[in-house]
Write a structure and sequence with these properties.
Layout lengths: L2 H50 L5 E5 L4 E4 L6 E5 L2 E9 L7 E3 L5 E4 L8 E9 L5 E10 L5 E2 L1 E4 L5 E2 L5 E5 L6 H6 L1 E5 L5 E5 L4 E6 L8 E7 L4 E3 L2 E3 L2 E8 L3 E6 L4 E6 L2 E7 L12 E4 L2 E9 L15 E10 L6 E5 L17 E4 L10 H7 L6 E5 L19 H6 L4
Parallel strand pairs: 2-8, 9-18, 11-19, 20-28, 26-27
Antiparallel strand pairs: 1-3, 3-6, 4-7, 5-6, 7-8, 10-12, 12-15, 13-16, 14-15, 16-19, 17-18, 20-21, 21-22, 23-28, 24-25, 25-26
Protein name: Lipoprotein
Keywords: Acyltransferase, Cell membrane, Cell shape, Cell wall biogenesis/degradation, Lipoprotein, Membrane, Palmitate, Peptidoglycan synthesis, Signal, Transferase
GO molecular function, one term: acyltransferase activity
Length: about 425
């Protein structure tokens, strides 16, 4: 072989050997990759070690982060498992702190005050596990707005003592279309065991009463469990509370417009007879069972507010200091003291614009008058039955006067 041929052969062998070396280098790359896998194992050990330094405490905040239309009563709460709470802060977006309390076992927290509507709250929580490692969680939510919620204003008030005719009357600030669920969220019970039924007068008013007057001395309990109840489309209840009131002695007074006398009875026995002056023939007093809903030692009565005006549009009367006035209807019927009428009218002539008048003195300071006696011996919830006036029976929803419906009519107005 010539030298030139030998050189060409050596170069080819060199190229071939270079190719083998290249292939060996690629193969060596794969082996290097396997060596990197060994590094992954080392990294896993590092990750495992880091995980062992992560707290096991698991924090849960309700409502969930970003929630809207949250309840102002029960929504806000914090719980922890596999650990204990060390710090919980709740603030409004302007930084106002909300008072709250961690439970004795340090596994839960809740606000100690009712939340405000249409308010965004932030919650920040820290907890520790058994090894002392900390966990953290944060959330924010917005409570239900007034436009998307309803409340019911109720009477009588908690802790009061009232007469045997006092119904539980609830007026809602939004029209209720889902009456079934709302009524199911309200219960009224009596220690007497009397059956109590609700009656809807309209979309905003729901009253409760038994078939007959409450038993004297009994306790009536109203429970509102309306939190989260949808009263109308997109409108939710926010109330959750329990109130109770006591029924006093059984006092029912009977006004007779013909005899112009009122007989006051307790437990069915007449305890006093009082001469009265009811509505004149032109302005007769409603008939029916009426419940005293308000009491005023003195109050102003202006005829213009109830439709009694003269040719100039002014009230036919405007008395700024009517003594011992007790409301019997929302339309303006009262039983009250009268100092401007002659003593001779009481028991003899019906002269009023529809109220029931009792002899009294100006200033409401004489305890010896019939007006003062009846005022001092009456309470909200007492019944005044007006008879023989010649006028129509008062509408059941004109005041707290649902007793003018039969029990069958009353029950027919229940949604459940």
């Amino acid at each position: 072989m010539t030298n030139s041929k030998r050189r060409r052969g050596l170069r080819a062998a060199s190229v071939l050997l270079g190719g083998v070396l290249v292939l060996s280098a690629c193969s060596g790359g794969e082996e290097a990759s396997g060596s990197d896998g060994g590094n992954d194992t080392s990294q896993a050990k590092v990750d495992e070690a880091a995980a062992q330094k992560t707290s096991e405490a698991q924090i849960e905040i309700t409502p969930k982060d970003g929630s809207t239309n949250a309840s102002i009563n029960n929504s806000a709460a914090v719980t922890v498992s596999k650990g204990t709470l060390t710090e919980v802060t709740m603030t409004t977006t302007d930084g106002t702190a909300v008072e709250g309390e961690i439970s004795a076992d340090k596994t839960s927290w809740k606000p100690s005050v009712q939340l405000e509507r249409s308010t965004r709250y932030k919650v920040a929580v820290t907890a520790k596990d058994a090894k002392g490692l900390e966990a953290h969680e944060n959330a924010s939510f917005t409570t239900v707005s007034p436009n998307n919620s309803f409340i019911g204003t109720f009477t009588p008030d908690n802790g009061t003592t009232v007469g045997v005719g006092m119904p539980v009357s609830i007026n809602f600030d939004k029209a209720i279309t889902n009456k079934v669920d709302v009524q199911k969220g309200i219960t009224v019970t009596s220690s007497s065991g009397q059956e109590v039924v609700g009656h809807w007068f309209n979309a905003n008013r729901l009253d409760f009463r038994p078939e007959d007057y409450w038993k004297e001395g009994s306790t009536v309990t109203l429970k509102l469990a309306l939190d989260g109840v949808e009263g109308a489309e997109g409108v939710y209840g926010v109330q959750q509370k329990t109130v109770s009131f006591t029924i006093g002695r059984n006092q029912v007074s009977y006004v007779d417009a013909q005899t112009k006398q009122m007989k006051v009875t307790q437990d069915g026995k007449v305890v006093k007879t009082i001469p009265i002056s009811a509505g004149s023939p032109e302005n007769k007093t409603y008939e029916g069972q009426m419940v005293i809903s308000e009491k005023f030692k003195e109050t102003r009565m202006n005829g213009a507010t109830v439709g009694f005006t003269d040719d100039d549009g002014k009230g036919e009367y405007d008395i700024k200091d009517v003594p011992h006035a007790m409301r019997l209807s929302s339309s303006g019927t009262f039983i009250h003291g009268n100092y401007w009428g002659a003593d001779s009218i009481f028991g003899n002539v019906n002269t009023s614009h529809g109220c029931v008048g009792l002899n009294d003195t100006k200033g409401a300071n004489d305890p010896n008058t019939e007006g003062a006696w009846f005022y001092n011996n009456s309470m909200v919830g007492d019944v005044v039955v007006v008879q023989n006036t010649g006028d129509k029976t008062i509408a059941p929803d004109n005041g707290l006067n649902g007793w003018n419906m039969s029990w069958e009519q009353w029950k027919a107005g229940s949604a459940v």
